[in-house]
């Protein structure tokens, strides 16, 4: 048994009555054990299966049979350094060193969390050596959780082959240290808690010539400017990552011709300004909350969640996610005019007692395009069923002509009698779209705007739609 397998604990011996019977023999009497169907698969398929296992489980496959013994060394390497690898720090360090010394298969993923190993000067040098290991040549996915320590410079030698990278809670080298940094294959980049200068961030993005998705949070920058010809998704979490962080106050999308999704989430106590100068393909926008002091997209100006200027509407936005104090029908109607081709509208209500929602809206005299032609799905969260809520929702019931589904996230208890009363008050029998469905569900805390799980899943057209996945 080689060092990598030896580093893993042997399985417990079974009692005599628990042991498996001897394997059956082939009928021709050649003495070879009859293989199971899985073991008959080609090496490359079995290697792919092994790469999906945890590091510990993958190494243990060598103990299954002689058929599996050589597969561990040549399978795609999925090495995660955390406490699940071993309960003792010394053993974790030894196991990783042995694996990197003996593994000769392709490098798929390397995840190193310094929090799993107490940092000492000699260990930091060992981490640097791990990144220099030939076993990581061609690495595709890198996760480094630095525990407020700098990223080892040797990690950047892996830049040419990385497709996914997540650097968390660490310091990023300055421009002078990496003047020619290039990540030509990188598609997804996450930088939560990474201390980086504005110049270094621009330099990093310039070197990511295929980047599609970017996540920023707690980077010690008050202003972030984005220039990228390839970015399709930007997620910005503007809340504090550490209490001592400088909070992002201004996001400027200077030039992003391929940007489809702009997702500001978890806005903290500091008002934020978002300016979109050039993003002609923007399709998904939100979560927009009262913490966004000003939003400027082309000629659209929104201040404190109230559209105040609209010279030319933005016709590319199909999905809008926002907060509405009240909920406020006047404000939402203005947003509908800002984005006339909107197809999905998500609203997080923030209750206010003095909201009336009985303004004079005559759609025949002053039509709203998206209500007549495009708006097919609406979700209203924190729905209480009080008169302001009913007046607000009834506006869509009576005017959304192509509506297919309207969901109410009910805040508090409800039953069949309550829902029947709501259906009567909402005048569902007079709905503008005869094919519309109206669902009352329990409000689960606005999971569709706080869930970060699918932020970077570009194969999901609407990352806020929980019906598109099985995990929400």
UniProtKB/TrEMBL annotation:
<dbReference type="Pfam" id="PF08387">
    <property type="entry name" value="FBD"/>
</dbReference>
<dbReference type="InterPro" id="IPR053781">
    <property type="entry name" value="F-box_AtFBL13-like"/>
</dbReference>
<dbReference type="Pfam" id="PF24758">
    <property type="entry name" value="LRR_At5g56370"/>
</dbReference>
<dbReference type="InterPro" id="IPR036047">
    <property type="entry name" value="F-box-like_dom_sf"/>
</dbReference>
<feature type="domain" description="F-box">
    <location>
        <begin position="41"/>
        <end position="80"/>
    </location>
</feature>
<dbReference type="Pfam" id="PF00646">
    <property type="entry name" value="F-box"/>
</dbReference>
<feature type="compositionally biased region" description="Basic and acidic residues">
    <location>
        <begin position="9"/>
        <end position="36"/>
    </location>
</feature>
<dbReference type="InterPro" id="IPR032675">
    <property type="entry name" value="LRR_dom_sf"/>
</dbReference>
<dbReference type="InterPro" id="IPR006566">
    <property type="entry name" value="FBD"/>
</dbReference>
<dbReference type="InterPro" id="IPR001810">
    <property type="entry name" value="F-box_dom"/>
</dbReference>
<feature type="region of interest" description="Disordered">
    <location>
        <begin position="1"/>
        <end position="36"/>
    </location>
</feature>
<dbReference type="InterPro" id="IPR055302">
    <property type="entry name" value="F-box_dom-containing"/>
</dbReference>
<protein>
    <recommendedName>
        <fullName>F-box domain-containing protein</fullName>
    </recommendedName>
</protein>
<dbReference type="InterPro" id="IPR055411">
    <property type="entry name" value="LRR_FXL15/At3g58940/PEG3-like"/>
</dbReference>
